[in-house]
């Protein structure tokens, strides 16, 4: 393990809490830098289409994630302007790709 000096504050929430409050949490100055959230048109896609998720395209290119994460695994991290999963910009990296 590499020590980076980054301070991580970990907070567990039930999925229902996150689902009900995601818009308020992400649309504030206290929004988390990283968040695990359900992937799909009605969840992450909706947040991406509302501008509440950070576009990760530059990081995907810089770190070569698009070469490592392909096919259906890549689809779960990409959403178009309407929030439809499978194409468009990168807004997440699926936990299925984490090893």
The secondary-structure class comes to mainly alpha
Which series of helices and strands comes N to C? HHHHHEE
How many angstroms does the end-to-end distance come to?
Answer: 14 Å
Rg calc: 14 Å
Number of discrete helical segments: 5
Number of strands: 2
Residue share in β-strands: under 5%
Q: So what's the overall shape?
A: globular
Which percent bin holds the helix content?
A: 25-40%
Average pLDDT works out at 85
| Biggest sheet layout | 2 strands, antiparallel
Uncertain spans: none
Question: Looking across the biggest beta sheet, what order are the strands in?
Answer: 1-2
Describe the structure in your own words.
This protein is mainly alpha-helical and 99 residues long. The chain is built from five helices and two strands. It has helices spanning 15-26, 41-49, 57-63, 65-68, 71-75, and strands at residues 78-79, 89-90. It has a two-stranded antiparallel ribbon with strand order 1-2. The longest helix has 12 residues, at 15-26. The chain is globular and about 30 Å long. The mean pLDDT is 85.
